[in-house]
Specification:
Layout lengths: L13 H16 L1 H18 L6 H25 L9 H29 L2 H21 L4 H20 L4 H55 L2 E6 L5 E2 L3 H7 L3 H4 L12 H12 L3 E10 L2 E12 L2 E8 L1 H15 L9 H12 L6 E8 L2 H8 L1 H17 L6 E6 L2 E7 L6 H13 L2 E3 L2 E3 L3 E8 L6 H17 L5 E3 L4 H15 L8 E10 L5 E12 L3 E3 L1 H11 L2 H16 L7 E5 L2 H5 L3 H12 L6 E5 L1 H5 L2 H14 L2 E7 L5 H7 L4 E4 L1 H4 L6 H16 L3 E4 L5 H10 L3 E2 L8 E2 L12 H20 L3 H6 L1
Parallel strand pairs: 11-12, 14-16, 16-17, 17-18, 18-19, 19-20, 20-21
Antiparallel strand pairs: 1-2, 1-5, 3-4, 4-5, 6-8, 6-11, 7-8, 9-10, 13-14, 13-21, 13-22, 14-15
Helix pairs in contact: 1-3, 1-4, 2-3, 2-5, 3-4, 4-5, 4-6, 5-6, 5-7, 6-7, 13-14, 16-17, 17-18, 19-21, 27-28
């Protein structure tokens, strides 16, 4: 069985394995001299003691020695197939140790046996032979210190016994010499092993260094971009290298005698090189361009005059030049949109402000709801949106304006003094263009934008101040409802700081339990019963008190916290619903960001299951804005909600551009008539006509109607006359905390409703007495 098939020992460091392999290689490499020495010494001993020792004993010793030497030869042959990383390396090491031990023991026992029968002259021979074999063994096994010591330790006992058996002072003296000699040889073993290891490591390091140098030289020869050239006194090429011809992509015979200067494109640098050659001046690293096969290349040229012309070296730096141009482009332009980046924009703004008049207009804008879209639809969709928005912004400006992407969804527009009177028009155009839905593959996205405007030097005479004031104006535009442009005004700094504080506090509001749900009653117009409540969020801040949604919801949408807050509202509202009378319902508003959230369906389903409520008691309200953003995906989400058994209401109906289209696309269960039509329903016939049309439309489609913002008895009477199903507003109740709602587990608040119903009846009687009833019908 071959020893390299054996798995011996554990893992060893590659350097240790290499050194062990080198040690064994050196030890087994001196096989012939070692074997010859052992055989010659054995034959001399045999001849000397042939008359005193039985031939059978001598034969047995010689056979044993021959077997050991043959085993060592077999080990050397097997070792030739072992690599430094072979698991059989440990087996070879153990064989060498065992061979050293066996050879030393054989010679030690043989010398001891012969010493007892030897004459004085023979004993002197044996002593010399013993010293020689000890030294020869340590030299043979010097690369393996352990094997050398095993050989030495196995031969010493036999000699020591032989010296003691003489029972003479000479024997004791010989024993002392043996001990001293053994100690000396032991120290030499350690020293020889250390020297070999050091020499082997140096040899390996030198081999690796030579290999590296050879590799580098070979790489340079094969891939180097340098070549030599020679010119005659007239500046024409002579003795061209093949690589020069290859670089020019011409046969070498067509390069001979060609004008060196005419190889290159006309440029200032070519004129400089011609002047150097004409005046006999050496030059270094002159960079020139040349066109080879309609492709522009760049060479770096160094040359010096010689006795009969010029000699120089060329380096093709085309790749380096392209890399430098790419790095320069990346340093000044945005890699996604190819617009100037913040660095280039700031440089341009700085130069504009430092001109003679120092007048420049600055617009800072970002994309409304971009963060939510990027988080819910994914970064690839967000990147496509940024590129599409960048193209639209560029289409809104002229050649004199500079559009830049500052980072994320932030853009800026620099308007020169000559176009400053158009800055408001440009801003309005950008808002209009960005309000149009973006078709991004399978998604239709509506974003809008907010713009802050600052004009230098009135709003800042340096880059940082003008940028800061434009940002403050941007914050104000977002706070005022977005999708608008605002010029900077003094005092905006305080407003922006207040908004930042709200953002910081909002991030921890849910964790601190500061969010609360308030509820506003929904009243059945026919029966006057409370049919349910709409959940409205409030933020009970420890210092600010009650913070209304119009203050913190825009901040939540900008920061992406609207998803987390919306999920809390869903869970809390459904949990509250579980404690109410089973006739009561709850209405919950869904934001555009929630509709795009992948966790929406799971959150609702889990809340319904956890509280064991009938899903038909839950109504989710959405606005047309939700449907306009990625309408196909949102319609699919609404169908999934309907499959859960919940109701869907279209909120603020009639305020958008395509309400009827959405009623056709999805079977809503309820339409909520916006308060703008209810506010003047008792005084304007157009409002009455609109409400009547919406009620009739909903009735024909099998949907209920709810009127928002009912504050006067006159409005209530008119809505009842028009056939509206449900109302809500301050006439019945403000939004109050759950604890302040009355009789949630039993009947509706009969006293309040009855009073309202009596007031309505009284109002109707007064209308009749004034003969106003026909007028209402006519409306």
């Amino acid at each position: 069985m071959k020893i390299d098939t054996l798995r011996v020992g554990g893992a060893r460091d590659s350097n240790e394995s290499w050194l062990l392999h080198r040690q064994l290689e050196e030890n087994l490499g001196n096989l012939r001299p070692s074997a010859a020495g052992n055989i010659i010494n054995a034959l001399i001993c045999s001849a000397l003691f042939i008359s005193s020792v039985s031939p059978l004993v001598i034969g047995a010793v010689l056979v044993t020695l021959t077997m050991l030497l043959a085993w060592r030869a077999r080990t050397a042959r097997d070792f030739a197939e072992v690599t430094p990383d072979s698991p059989a390396l440990d087996m070879v090491r153990r064989r060498v140790n065992l061979l050293a031990l066996s050879l030393g023991a054989l010679w030690g026992l043989s010398l001891c046996a012969l010493f007892t029968i030897a004459t004085t002259e023979q004993q002197m021979f044996l002593g010399i032979l013993a010293a020689g074999m000890m030294n020869a063994g340590t030299v043979t096994f010097r690369t393996r210190a352990r094997a050398a010591r095993l050989y030495l330790l196995s031969i010493i006992p036999g000699l020591a016994v032989s010296f003691l058996m003489t029972n003479s002072m000479s024997g004791v003296a010989a024993l002392g010499l043996l001990i001293c000699y053994s100690a000396f040889l032991s120290s030499q073993i350690s020293l020889a092993a250390q020297r070999f290891d050091m020499a082997a490591r140096r040899e390996r390091a030198l081999e690796e260094s030579n290999a590296t140098v050879a590799l580098l030289l070979n790489d340079f020869a094969e891939q180097g971009s340098d070549w030599l050239f020679e010119l005659d006194r007239d500046g024409c090429i002579r003795n061209p290298e093949q690589r020069l011809a290859q670089a020019c992509q011409r046969p070498i015979e067509t390069v001979v005698g060609k004008s060196w200067i005419k190889l290159f494109d006309p440029s200032i640098e070519r004129g400089q090189m011609a002047a150097h050659i004409m005046e006999g001046r050496a030059f270094r690293h002159l960079i020139l361009s040349l066109t080879i096969g309609q492709v522009q290349h760049w060479w770096s040229i160094s040359a010096r005059p010689v006795e009969d012309g010029w000699r120089g070296v060329c380096t093709d730096i085309t790749a380096q030049r392209h890399a430098e141009e790419r790095v320069s482009y990346m340093a000044h332009y945005d890699g996604l949109t190819d617009l100037p980046n913040r660095f280039l924009f700031n440089e341009s703004l700085y130069h504009s402000l430092n001109q003679k008049d120092g007048v420049a207009g600055l617009m800072c804008l970002d994309l409304d709801n971009f963060k939510v879209i990027n988080d819910t639809l994914g970064h690839p969709v967000g990147d496509r949106l940024l590129k599409a928005a960048a193209r639209r912004i560029q289409s809104c400006v002229g050649d004199t304006e500079l559009v830049a992407r500052l980072g994320g969804d932030e853009f800026a527009v620099l308007v020169p003094a000559s176009r400053l009177d158009q800055i408001d028009t440009i801003a309005a155009t950008i808002i209009e263009k960005l309000s149009v839905p973006f078709a991004l593959g399978d998604h239709d996205v509506v974003i809008g934008t907010s713009i802050g405007i600052a004009v230098g030097p009135d709003h800042g005479s340096d880059t940082d101040l003008l940028m800061r004031n434009a940002d403050l104006a941007l914050y104000s535009a977002k706070a005022l409802g977005r999708n608008r442009a605002i010029r900077f005004e003094s005092g905006m700094d305080e407003a922006a700081q207040a908004r930042r504080l709200i953002e910081l506090d909002l991030r921890s509001a849910l964790g601190k339990g500061e969010m609360r749900l308030h509820y506003q009653q929904l009243v059945d117009v026919v029966t006057g019963d409370i049919s349910g409540h709409e959940a409205l969020i409030r933020w009970e801040h420890p210092d600010r008190g009650i913070v209304m949604p119009n203050v913190f919801i825009p901040v939540a949408e900008d920061t992406g916290l609207i998803i987390q807050i919306g999920e809390w509202v869903i869970r809390q509202a459904i949990a509250d619903l579980a404690t109410w009378d089973e006739r009561l319902t709850v209405s919950i508003n869904l934001s555009p960001a929630q509709m795009r959230s992948s966790s929406l369906i799971g959150t609702i389903a889990h809340a319904i299951a956890a509280n064991a409520v009938d899903p038909a008691r839950i109504c989710f309200e959405i606005t047309e804005t939700v449907l306009m953003q990625d309408s196909d995906a949102n319609i699919e989400t609404l169908h999934m909600l309907r499959r859960l058994g919940v109701n869907i209401a279209l909120d603020d109906f009639g305020t958008g551009y395509s309400s009827l289209n959405y009623l056709r696309s999805f079977p809503f269960t309820k339409i909520k008539i916006d308060r703008c039509f209810i506010a003047e329903i008792d005084s304007r016939e157009d409002c009455q006509a609109i409400v009547r049309s919406v009620v009739n439309l909903a009735s024909s489609l099998g949907m209920k109607t709810t009127a928002e913002g009912v504050e006067r008895e006159e409005q209530m009477t008119m809505l009842k006359a028009q056939g509206c199903d449900e109302v809500q507003g301050f006439l019945f109740s403000h939004a109050v905390a759950r604890e302040e709602l009355s009789d949630l587990r039993h009947a509706p608040d009969v006293e309040i409703i009855d009073r309202r119903m009596m007031e309505m009846a009284d109002y109707e009687e007064r209308l009749k007495s004034r003969s106003e009833r026909p007028k209402i019908k006519a409306a």
